[in-house]
Amino acid sequence: MTAWTKVFLLIGLGLLAVDAAAPWWKTASFYQIYPRSFKDTDGDGVGDLNGVTEKLEYLKEIGVTATWLSPFLKSPMADFGYDISDFKEVDPLFGTMEDFEKMVSRAKELDVKIILDFVPNHSSDDCDWFLRSAAGEEQYKDYYIWHPGFVDDDGNRRPPTNWVSVFRGSAWEWHEGRQEYYLHQFHKKQPDFNFRNPVVREEMNNVLRFWLEKGVDGFRVDAIYHAFEIEADENGNYPDEPRNDWTDDPDEYGYTHKIYTVDQPETPHLVYEWRQILEQFQADNGGDERILMVETWSPIEIVMDYYGNSTADGAQIPFNFQLISNLHYDSDAYHYEYLINNWLNLMPEGKSANWVIGNHDKNRVGSRFGADRVDLFNILLLTLPGCSITYNGEELGMLDGYVSWEDTVDPQACNGYEANYMDNSRDPARTPMHWSDEKMAGFTTGKSTWLPVASDFTQRNVKTERGVSLSHLNVFKRLQALRQEPSIEEGSAEIKAVSNYVLAVKRHLSGNYVYISLFNIFDSIENVNLSNVFDDLPAKFQYALVTEKSIKKVGDQLSTSSVTLMPHESIVLRSTVTV
Ligand code: GLC
User: Fold this and answer.
1) Catalytic residue among 295, 372, 400, 427
2) What range(s) does the Glycosyl hydrolase family 13 catalytic domain occupy (predicted)?
3) Is the pTM of this model over 0.85?
4) Which of 21, 107, 149, 304 could form a disulfide with 112 if both were Cys (CB 3.0 to 4.6 A apart)?
5) What ligand 1 atom has the least distance to the C-alpha of 361?
6) Which residues, judged by CB distance below 6 Å to any ligand atom, belong to the binding site of ligand 1?
7) Strand 492-497 and strand 502-508: pairing?
8) Which residues contact 214 (CB under 8 A, 6 or more apart)?
9) Structural domain span for residue 133
10) Is 289 a catalytic residue?
11) Of 475, 503, 526, which closes a domain?
């Protein structure tokens, strides 16, 4: 039998179809859950894993393929779970390992994939590894970055360098016990691991293996660009970072230009190593591809390195923060067009795009861009090629909740001053999820919540929005249905600014309908001749998705040469014929 005969035979038997199918994550709709604020089942005012399990059906209802859960592992909660004291234990605040297992098994029944937040850059200072390292135990002494600092002419001890922590102040903390400084790029209760120590790398590899065994489908890798710092010189010293001139405050993160503490050349290789672990696990255990989503706020060229290089695969999803980082309230359609196409153009051959506009570290989309643009961003994220990542509550158009200085708990804000705490606080985007218009928004049966419930919960909540035909929630659900259309799922994409005001995204797969999403970014009425924007369009289209701004209905037909958009209106059109 020739090789080709074998191939035809296999196709005939339907066996090649599985191999040929695109991996699940490529066009997945990801949903980030911030477990503290998602659903509380034990009445303590903090969300828990049983709450996530209870709401998995909701994820199914809104068409989610996979959910990335912010950390729920053992932690003293100095950074609300991003300070882990045991990388293999569930924190009792969130439940037990049994609860986790129940959640995974229910998710499997519903076919919702579970992605764990993997926080490799640092542990908690309560972590056993840190305690042993601080005690100078031989095996652990180099698990973290330690340095005695220097004694100046006046006999005062000063830190090894001018490096600043993301949460303000020196990135070095003096440890009385060990009589040395340790490095912490975030909170002083989050000491940085020493990734130049192969034992630490193996510990972290084992953390990945542990959770893979427990059935997770992949990892969101936290703050990866901080993993390495420049290597110490022959005397064990580190260089100062150059100053930035925009602030004189040595405690402000922007005080130094980050050339030694982030984006070191070794870092993407760490991710390549982890990808190997995932591949090996899959080779040994089968099942769907396990994935890595990496968080790096690096220049775009560096982000691209995380996809892999000519010899190694990296993360399937290096988060695309281009829209989050660069778009602002006044950005025009050319700016949107540039940012989207720039990612697509710079992406290495054969890789897949991802789109994200909100998360637990950023103000809510509707608060940054205006409540009138909530649908715009949901439609954009879900009709661009690749996968989308939605932060919980964005499907409802939740806005920032008001959190007074007294109620503020985020260390990024608490380490600063009352005068500008709102600029730094991440609490407003973390207020409890709105499930209903009942007491405490249906989030808890308890009397109080860890952050206040936002005051607008009676209008913006799951229960109410289910019943309003063009609510943000129903627009989101409709979008998920459209994503199953071959042109949107696997078709080509053309992204064009029609004018300063209107952005257009065309999706098409030969032999199928042409889909065009249109976004009127500002508050004027706009008329568009689509034939001037894209070549070879059929003469007629119909509305495939409208929003509450629309005066048309789904199914209404229109001429390609004249599409009218109301202020802030976003729509999806479908050609009336396949081409
Ligand atoms: C990431 C997380 C953020 C956390 C930080 C330190 O940026 O998204 O919430 O504070 O890492 O772990």
Assistant:
1) 295
2) 32-430
3) yes
4) 107
5) 9
6) 79, 82, 119, 186, 222-223, 295, 360-361
7) antiparallel
8) 100, 101, 104
9) 128-183
10) no
11) 475
